[in-house]
From TrEMBL:
This is Unannotated protein. PANTHER family: O-ACYLTRANSFERASE (WSD1-LIKE) FAMILY PROTEIN, WAX ESTER SYNTHASE_DIACYLGLYCEROL ACYLTRANSFERASE 4-RELATED. One of its GO terms (cellular component) is plasma membrane. Residues 144-284 form the O-acyltransferase WSD1 C-terminal domain. Residues 306-315 have a biased composition (Basic residues). It holds the Pfam family WS_DGAT_C. InterPro entries: O-acyltransferase_WSD1-like, O-acyltransferase_WSD1_C.
Length: 315
């Protein structure tokens, strides 16, 4: 008999409740508060604001049980393929400003545009896909970086890229507004009370709700050198964590260097996906004003300007 098939399905809340009942890794008072609220969510209003925010964020993270949307990206494996592309930072920034959004909006729009076109070209059109992205929740009171992992249904139906940009911008704004109560730091606080086996099981079930992951990593604002040689391009590689592919962007010296980590069993035509992503970036770049695009063509002005901004921030 298959041991995996003999394990009964346990609801996420039930699993956490049981795990916390046996856990003594946190102060008993906090443990009881979290455990009681998981038993009766109506008690949220009676506990401290910090614990309340933590529990609300945890429940929000675990309440999403809808499966991933792609009819194509259903298989997973340990086979990996790394692809890269790059686009002008100034073009993407200019396009984002012209269309009324941010650089992250441009980034996710390009990924969604490519993912939708990929499905249509392979005869499996899909209206929306679920993407994940780390969103900063850092405030002036934060001691360091603070993030929350947002999962968003992004539109992938056939539409002009500027319409997709507007839709994605609204989705991102909504995700940011609800991010503060579900930061990764708060989730990690509660997660520390739960056995690793339970966390692994919950993480796997949550990964099954996401089609692809995105991440925007801030790069160095000055040229980097390795053994005296100047680094010309700097491509990040994001973890898959059970999704079909991870597309990660890093800014470096006037360029956005993009790394795609692809599960080859999920994405059977990775070259097509990369080509479509490049086309999506080019479509967005067309919306950048001429003044923005010209910034990226200056041979010396751009690195120096970036360096001055870097040193201003560091002082």
């Amino acid at each position: 008999m298959n041991a995996a098939n003999s394990i009964p399905h346990v609801d996420a809340t039930e699993a956490l409740r049981g795990a916390m009942s046996d856990s003594m890794r946190m102060p008993l008072a906090v443990l009881r508060q979290v455990r009681d609220v998981l038993s009766d969510p109506s008690l949220i209003g009676t506990i401290g604001s910090s614990t309340s925010a933590t529990v609300k964020g945890l429940i929000a993270q675990l309440s999403e049980t809808d499966s991933a949307r792609s009819p194509l990206w259903t298989t997973r494996s340990l086979r990996r393929r790394l692809e890269t592309t790059r686009v002008s930072y100034y073009d993407m920034r200019g396009a984002a400003k012209a269309l009324g959004g941010t650089l992250n909006t441009s980034f996710i729009t390009a990924a969604a545009h490519a993912a939708g076109a990929y499905h249509r070209q392979l005869g499996a059109p899909v209206e929306s896909l679920r993407s994940s992205m780390a969103i900063s929740t850092r405030t002036s009171e934060s001691g360091g970086n603070a993030f929350t992992l947002a999962r968003m249904l992004v539109p992938t139906a056939d539409m002009p890229i500027e319409e997709r940009f507007a839709a994605v911008n609204e989705i991102l704004n909504a995700a940011r507004s609800g991010a503060a109560s579900s930061s990764l730091e708060a989730i990690a606080t509660v997660s520390s009370m739960v056995p690793t086996s339970v966390i692994t099981r919950l993480a796997r079930s949550q990964a099954e709700t996401v089609d692809f992951a995105t991440s925007n990593v801030r790069g160095a604002g000055v040229p980097l050198y390795v053994a005296g040689a100047k680094l010309l391009e700097n491509y990040p590689v994001g973890p898959l964590g059970g999704v079909a592919f991870n597309v990660t962007l890093m800014s470096y010296m006037g360029s956005l260097d993009v790394g795609l980590n692809i599960d080859e069993a999920a994405v059977e035509s990775p070259t097509l996906l990369v080509d479509l992503l490049k086309q999506s970036f080019n479509e967005l770049a067309a919306f950048a004003p001429a003044s923005e695009s010209s910034d990226s063509t200056g041979p010396a002005a751009e690195p120096g300007a970036t360096k001055r901004r870097w040193w201003r921030r560091s002082r």
